[in-house]
UniProtKB/TrEMBL annotation:
Residues 7-406 form the Enolpyruvate transferase domain. It comes from Alsobacter sp. KACC 23698. Phosphoenolpyruvate binds at residues 22-23. It is an enzyme of class 2 (transferase). GO terms for biological process: cell division; cell wall organization; peptidoglycan biosynthetic process; regulation of cell shape; UDP-N-acetylgalactosamine biosynthetic process. This is UDP-N-acetylglucosamine 1-carboxyvinyltransferase. The gene is murA.
Length: 418
C-alpha cells in the first residue's frame, strides 16, 4: 500500500494542467457500448476509475485502444454477460453500463455496485428510469436483471430529486428507445451536458442538455464518433483550494470559471481571487482567509465533491464556517482526520461547524474516500511539520498525478511504498 509524506508550509506557485473530467469520462466510456461503431474520446484522465471502466468494457469483449492522447472503444463484438463483482465492487459508476447494454441487447445483468463509502447511494432512480421505458426489473443474488425483450420504447421519466447517474442512465437508454423520451427534473451538471454532446456526436437527437427537461428522439442508428471530454471542475476546484490554503498562486490551464459555479463564489467570499486567463483560470490568495458558510447542492450549487476540500480551507480561516451537506448523508469522514491535524470541527447531523484559525500540525491520517483523502493532502500542505496520508489508492481513483503536479508547483511530497 502506498502513502504520501507531506512536508507542510510551502507556498504553491506555477501552472497545473487540468485534465478531462473523470465523471464525464465514465458515462461516455459506457456509452460506447450503445453502438457497434467505434467511439473515440480525447482528453481522458489517466486515473484508476477510468482504467477500471476500460477493463470492464474489455470484459464485455470491446476493444479499447489508447493512442496519442485518444482512446477508441470498438464495441462491435460485445458479448452481453454479467460483469464480474470484482470490478463492480470497486466503483459505483459500473451501474452506467446497465442502460447501454439493455438498450442494445434487450437484456442486461449487472451486480449491484460498490464504490465510495459516503452514504447508502441506492440505484432506485436508475431502475425507475429504465422501467419508464418498458423494462422489467428483477433483483436477485446481489444482481440487477433488466429485460426489455421487444426493445425499449420512449416514455416520460420524472425524477423526484435530480440524480447525475440516473439522468445518464435514462439518456443512454433513451437514445436507442423507439420514439420520444422526456426526462424531467434531470441533473444539470456539466458532465451530463457533456454526455449529451457525446451522444449527439454519435447521431442521437437530444434537446435541453444542461436544463431540467431533456427531450430525446430515440431509435436512430448511432455512428462512429469522436468527442473531447470537458475539463474536470472538481480537479480545478481542488487545485484552487491548494493555491488558497498555501497562500499561493496557481494557473489552472484548461479550467473554466463557469463550471466552478457556486464554488467560485464561495472561494471569492473567503478572500480567494479567481480570474480567467487565455489558458484557463488564475487563482491567488493575497491576504487573510475568512470563514464562509456553504450548503452542498446539485449543480450549479456548491458541489458535494468539493465540500471536503473547502472544509480543509476553512479550518485555517478567520472566523467560523457552517458546512451543510445535503447530497450524501455520510460525507463527513474527513472530519475526524482533519481534527487529528488540529482542526476544530463539531459535527451535528448533516452540518459541520468549523471554528477557524486552527494552527494545523502534521500527523498520520487515513484516507477514507476519494474527496476526503484529497482534503487531507490539502490540510497537510498547510500544516506545520510532516503529514502522512495513508491509503492513497483512494486518491488515485480520481486524481491524475496529484503528488507530481503539486511538487512541480513547490510542494514537498514523497510517495512511499510499503
Ligand atoms: C455523481 C458523481 C459524484 C458526485 C455526485 C453528486 C459520477 C461518476 N459521480 O455520482 O462524484 O458526488 O454525482 O454530484 O459522476 N440517489 C438515489 N437513488 C439513485 C441515485 C441517486 O437516491 O438511484 C441519491 C444519492 O444517494 C444521492 C443523490 O441521489 O443522495 C445524488 O446522487 P447522484 O447525483 O446520483 O450521484 P452519482 O451519480 O452516484
Amino acid at each position: 500500500m502506498e502513502r504520501l509524506l507531506i512536508e507542510g508550509g510551502h507556498r504553491l506557485e506555477g501552472a497545473v494542467q487540468i485534465v478531462g473530467a473523470k465523471n464525464a469520462a465514465l458515462p461516455q466510456l459506457a456509452a460506447a457500448l450503445l453502438s457497434p461503431e467505434p467511439l473515440t474520446l480525447t482528453n481522458l484522465p489517466d486515473v484508476a476509475d477510468v482504467r477500471s471502466m476500460m477493463t470492464l468494457l474489455e470484459h464485455y469483449g470491446a476493444t479499447v485502444l489508447a493512442r496519442s492522447g485518444a482512446v477508441t472503444v470498438d464495441a462491435a463484438a460485445v458479448v452481453n454477460r454479467e460483469a464480474p463483482y470484482d470490478i463492480v465492487r470497486r466503483m459505483r459508476a459500473t451501474i452506467l453500463v446497465l442502460g447501454p447494454l439493455l438498450a442494445r441487447f434487450g437484456h442486461a445483468r449487472v451486480s449491484q455496485p460498490g464504490g465510495c463509502a459516503i452514504g447508502a447511494r441506492p440505484v432506485d432512480l436508475h431502475l425507475k428510469a429504465l422501467s419508464a421505458l418498458g423494462t422489467t426489473i428483477a433483483l436477485d443474488g446481489g444482481s440487477i436483471d433488466a429485460r426489455a425483450p421487444d426493445g425499449l420504447r420512449g416514455g416520460r421519466i420524472l425524477f423526484g430529486s435530480p440524480s447525475v447517474g440516473a439522468t445518464e442512465t435514462a439518456l443512454m437508454a433513451a437514445v436507442l428507445a423507439r420514439g420520444e423520451t422526456e426526462i424531467m427534473n434531470a441533473a444539470r451538471e456539466p458532465e451530463v451536458a457533456d454526455l449529451c454532446a457525446c451522444l449527439v456526436a454519435m447521431g442521437a437527437e437530444i434537446e435541453g442538455a444542461g436544463t431540467h427537461r431533456i427531450l430525446v428522439q430515440g431509435g436512430r442508428a448511432l455512428r462512429k464518433a469522436r468527442h473531447e471530454i470537458l475539463p474536470d471542475r472538481v480537479e480545478a476546484g481542488t487545485y484552487a483550494v491548494a493555491a488558497a490554503i498555501t497562500g499561493g498562486q496557481l494557473e489552472l490551464t484548461g479550467a473554466r470559471l463557469e463550471h466552478l459555479a457556486a464554488v467560485g463564489e464561495a472561494l471569492e467570499a473567503a478572500g480567494v481571487r479567481i480570474w480567467p486567463t487565455d489558458r484557463g483560470l488564475m487563482v491567488s490568495r493575497p491576504g487573510r482567509l475568512k470563514g464562509v458558510d456553504i450548503t452542498t447542492e446539485p449543480y450549479p450549487g456548491f458541489s458535494t465533491d468539493l465540500q471536503a476540500q473547502f472544509m480543509a480551507l476553512m479550518t485555517i480561516a478567520d472566523g467560523a464556517s457552517m458546512i451543510r451537506e445535503t447530497v450524501f448523508e455520510n460525507r463527513f469522514m474527513h472530519v475526524p482526520e482533519l481534527s487529528r491535524l488540529g482542526a476544530n470541527i463539531t459535527l451535528q447531523g448533516a452540518s459541520a461547524m468549523v471554528r477557524g484559525g486552527a494552527v494545523l500540525r502534521g500527523a498520520p491520517v487515513m484516507a477514507t474516500d476519494l474527496r476526503a483523502s484529497v482534503s487531507l493532502v490539502l490540510a497537510g500542505l498547510a500544516a506545520q511539520g510532516e503529514t502522512v496520508v495513508n491509503r492513497v489508492y483512494h486518491l488515485d481513483r480520481g486524481y491524475e498525478c496529484l503528488d507530481k503536479k503539486l511538487v512541480r508547483c513547490g510542494a514537498r511530497i514523497q510517495r512511499l511504498r510499503d
